[in-house]
Fold this sequence. Notes:
Helices cover 36% and strands 17% of the residues. The chain contains 17 helices and 15 strands. The strands form 2 sheets. It has a 9-stranded mixed beta sheet. Helix 14 crosses helix 15 (369-383). The chain is globular. The two termini are 39 Å apart.
Amino acid sequence: MQTGMNRRHFLGVAAGAAVAAGMATHRASAEAGKPVRVGVIGTGNRGRSLSGTMLHMPDITIPAVCDIREAAVEAAQDLVEKAGHPRPEAYTGDEYAYRKLLARDDLDAVIIATPWNWHTPMAVDAMRAGKYVGVEVPAAITYEECWALVNTCEETKVPCMMLENWSFRRDNLALLNMVRQGLFGEIVHVHCAHSHDCIDHWFFDTEGNMRWGGEFLVKRNCDQYPTHSLGPVLSWMDINCGDAFATMTSTATASRGINAYFIRKFGPDHPNAKREYKQGDIVTSVVRTQNGKTLVINYDMQLPRPYDNRWMLQGTLGVYSEMRDALYLEGRSPGYHEWEPFPPYQEEFEHPWWQAILAEAAQHGHGGTDYLELKLFLKAVRDKTQTPIDVYDSATMSSVIPMSEESIAKGSAPVTCPDYTRGAWRTRKPTFGVVT
């Protein structure tokens, strides 16, 4: 899908102007023994990757696909057909073609994998049409969009899950198991980052042309992509279920990396070498929680570097470092204040979700993480239960984008974090990763 929706226009139409009013009360549900029927909105690389993963699962069908680009729709149709399923119906032609897909009465859920500014409008319309929503990251990019997701979910009672796959990584879930068994004591501080040089393949193509993601670098200075780093942290710190974000400060460096890349690769006269970018190269955000814990979040996507997330967790009984692939536990580690390897602990504390699907998942996207995420999402659709990541966590992770933008614009001043649970975090119990 291409970009192009005005925010105020969205707020005016999201209440359902283009989705028939009768559809708002419709609840397509997977009857016992029947396949879960999924529509896919956005069939570029990510949409087709998710579709391919779902097509490896039993009792899943994709009756409809949508993208503004006809070639992308046809590629998705071919993918489904080659997997032995009927060729799905295509919806294309304009930016609102997805609403015709949502008007179908034979879909239980939709997967949304479009550019960021379309995520919330499409998710809101899908919930109003009675479809479970699995929306790619980030689920929202403004305060008003975060609240639109929460309010619509509460009004319609239709679950909305941001597809934050790093919450489902084997190492992160094993660490969650250890945290909940008390091996680190009380968690006091966490550091996380999304460190990935994306200039030459995500924000721009290899020929130097701006892709849709590059438009955000010109217009905004914020943490553009916080959810991959934040996903597992929320459950480690019991955010929204015993604790909550209270305040956040954010600081951005100057913007140097993008121009330096274009000068180095294409020369100083290239238009993108001369362009002014609002986005700083590194954004550092510090969150203080209601219970006095701290969290550092780094955005780092414009300077040359290999990929890593730099997770580090500290508690009253020990510390874990993802970069070292190691930990130290007071009273358990053999050497005094000496790191020991994490892999044996991952094996010992393997999360039940991974124990159940390890053999079948390993061959799929992101080492099986996408497979587990989608399997659990689709199980919730089939059982008509809550999704593993709920709308409150989806909004909380996404809200780092506007919070960081506000703080940076105010000279790194603290901003108050919205409470999407409306105070319910004090009594809500953890649900993510809980196996009964």
